[in-house]
Amino acid sequence: MRLQNKNVVITGGASGIGLASVIRCLEEGANVVLSDLAGSEGAARAAELDGKHGGRCLFKACDVTDTAQVDRLFEETVNELGSVDAVFSNAGIGGVAPSHKVSDEEFLRIIDINLNGVFRVARAALRIMYGQGSGSIVNCASILGKFGQSNTAAYSAAKGGVVNLTRALALEAAPKGVRVNAIGPGYIDTPLIADLDKDLMNALIAMHPLGRLGRAEEVANGFLFLASDESSFVTGTTLMIDGGFTAGK
Ligand code: NDP
């Protein structure tokens, strides 16, 4: 029970990596706030999971592009559960398009969710964690935070931003007893990539030395490590969970 009695907030928790992380945290003894967009399946998922492993699973609607909603998510969590011990800033969207065809609106939307949203969540979490003198924030980056890839300019820019945002926040937060890390998944079998063209998917699989897509649970296990005290001397890093993608050719 690596997260016994810990309170965890996970954004984008209704689907894919987020949902797998909600379930793993509950299995490890945590209370979890499953946060996602209003109207998502998050409320139904949380209702199914609440109490199933002993801990609470509460749904809280939050769009990470809205500062007031993010701040409210953390205020309500601390009021109801008493603390915020770990956060997975996981909400994100994809975006594949040649740059000369990308509008300002499309570019800025990807940055606003995938990068600015991570900052909004971290800021709200830090306000609480500084008061506690402890906490672990984990941001979702990507292999595309370390490498570029054609037709993903906004996504790659956002995820590269997350990697360096994580370093800067970690330096700021360390003296206050708070750790900040990121996870860099390779291509993971979730709804985010379900619509990719089959030939592209096969080419992407071939870029992973382990020869397959990752599973959401494999990323969730990385979050568990970074959220728990097992990683008590780890801060400012990006843990790559990528089947060897970034190891080189
Ligand atoms: P999913 O689409 O399965 O899950 C992402 C969740 O985030 C969805 O429930 C989505 O809602 C939600 N979301 C979207 N926009 C917002 C918002 N503004 N506020 C709050 N929640 C929002 O994708 P994954 O599980 O694959 O992705 C999780 C994270 O992992 C993302 O940050 C992604 O970039 C990253 N990642 C994924 C990889 C992959 O190959 N799958 C590879 C590398 C990184 P809705 O479904 O309604 O959009």
Topology diagram in text:
Layout: E1 7-10, H1 16-27, E2 31-36, H2 42-49, E3 57-61, H3 67-81, E4 86-89, H4 104-132, E5 135-140, H5 153-173, E6 178-185, H6 198-206, H7 216-227, E7 238-241
Parallel strand pairs: 1-2, 1-4, 2-3, 4-5, 5-6, 6-7
Helix pairs in contact: 1-7, 3-4, 4-5
The structure holds NADPH dihydro-nicotinamide-adenine-dinucleotide phosphate (NDP).
The site of NADPH dihydro-nicotinamide-adenine-dinucleotide phosphate (NDP) has 27 residues, from helix 1.
Structural features, described:
It comes from Yanghanlia caeni. Belongs to the short-chain dehydrogenases/reductases (SDR) family. This is SDR family NAD(P)-dependent oxidoreductase. This protein is α/β, with parallel strands linked by helices. The chain has one domain (7-240): 3-Layer(aba) Sandwich (Rossmann fold), CATH 3.40.50. It is built from 7 helices and 7 strands, in the order E-H-E-H-E-H-E-H-E-H-E-H-H-E. The protein has helices spanning 16-27, 42-49, 67-81, 104-132, 153-173, 198-206, 216-227, and strands at 7-10, 31-36, 57-61, 86-89, 135-140, 178-185, 238-241. Helix 1 (16-27) packs across helix 7. The longest helix has 29 residues, at 104-132. The radius of gyration is 17 Å and the shape is globular. Bound molecules: NADPH dihydro-nicotinamide-adenine-dinucleotide phosphate.
